[in-house]
Amino acid sequence: MPPLQESPFLVDDCLEYHPAFLGQKESGHLLDRFWSELEWEQEDITIFGRTVRQPRLISWYGDPGARYAYSGLVLEPRSWHPALLKLKRQIESFTRHRFNSVLANAYRDGSDSMGWHSDDEKELGPKPFIASLSLGEERRFLLRQKGRKSSGLLLEHGSLLLMKGDCQQRFQHALPKTRRKIGLRINLTFREIRYQAPV
Ligand SMILES: O=C(O)CCC(=O)C(=O)O
Ligand SMILES: [Mn+2]
């Protein structure tokens, strides 16, 4: 694997994109395995006072105590799946950052999505370093500075996107729906919970 500084595609000084972090074969194997072995759930979230079903499936894994709260949801970590733990260690040695948790999102088809948001919850600290691994169907990831036009980046099978520095303060991101007839995509965002969320 090439060293970090040689291969990345810098989208902004706070975003770094590595298109082929994992090989195609390994990525395909992990996609199948995570789809059948992670404990997927569809949760209700509350946005601007309205409660809706999340348009995707999620699962939260991490060290004991790595609790995460967003949009009215409180997620208690499941204990690490061995393949997630292996991937976490691989990403840690590549990025030289530590993670104690991962949010897995499964987008079953083009109608599953994620709305505009920043990962700026208090428990992640002021400048979180987030490593986002994509498996399966390619999807467009949108990024916008508050009040400005958005730009897009295609997140490929086996790619790793790093969000760091003041990325979450400056930008919002989203994964829009698509009319293309596509299948499953799984995204894993490795994070460090630094402060306990209230229960
Ligand atoms: O699926 C993606 O690429 C984005 C996931 C994301 O933004 C999140 O989990 O906070
Ligand atoms: Mn996010």
Layout of SSEs?
Layout: E1 9-12, E2 15-18, H1 24-37, E3 44-47, E4 50-53, E5 57-62, E6 68-70, E7 73-75, H2 82-95, E8 101-107, E9 114-117, E10 130-136, E11 139-145, E12 150-155, E13 159-163, H3 167-170, E14 171-175, E15 185-191
Antiparallel strand pairs: 1-2, 2-13, 3-4, 5-8, 6-7, 8-15, 9-14, 10-13, 10-15, 11-12, 11-14
Describe the structure.
This protein is α+β, with helices and mostly antiparallel strands and 199 residues long. It has a single domain, classed as Jelly Rolls (Sandwich), CATH 2.60.120. The protein is 16% helix and 38% strand. A seven-stranded antiparallel beta sheet has the order 1-2-13-10-15-8-5. Strands 9-14-11-12 form a four-stranded antiparallel beta sheet. A hairpin with a 2-residue loop joins strand 3 and strand 4. The longest helix has 14 residues. The N terminus is likely disordered. The structure holds 2-oxoglutaric acid and manganese (II) ion. 2-oxoglutaric acid (AKG) binds next to strand 8, strand 14 and strand 15.
The low-pLDDT segments are 1-7
Structural class: alpha+beta
Question: What is the count of distinct domains?
Answer: 1
Helix and strand sequence: EEHEEEEEHEEEEEEHEE
What percentage of amino acids are in beta strands? 35-45%
Question: How many beta-strand segments?
Answer: 15
Cα separation of the termini: 41 Å
If you compute it from the alpha carbons, what radius of gyration comes out, rounded to the nearest whole angstrom? 16 Å
- State the strand order across the main sheet: 1-2-13-10-15-8-5
- What is the CATH fold-level name? Jelly Rolls
Principal-axis shape equals: globular
Largest sheet: 7 strands, antiparallel
Helix content: 10-25%
Number of helices: 3
Ligand inventory reads: 2-oxoglutaric acid, manganese (II) ion
Mean pLDDT metric: 92
CATH superfamily: Alpha-ketoglutarate-dependent dioxygenase AlkB-like
CATH architecture: Sandwich
